Amino acid sequence: MPTPDDVRPPREPRKPLGLATRRRAYLVMMGACVLLIVLAWTLIWRYSITAAVVMSAVALCVPPFAAIVANAGPANRQ
Hints:
By secondary structure, the protein is an all-alpha fold. It has helices spanning 19-42, 49-70. It has a domain at 23-70. It is 59% helix and 0% strand.
């Protein structure tokens, strides 16, 4: 049984990510998506069609997550 000294105080909620951080994460994720598609369709398919299809499927799943990350903060009021 923990003693009162072992119990940690509750953490404060995290602050939302800033606009610049969200924008950078979005660009990195979308850049990875484009890179996966380009590599799969130009290089990888020559060695393994299965690997190219898997890379394309992964690239297909990236944009929704990038949009979620980009919109995960307060609205940008300009």
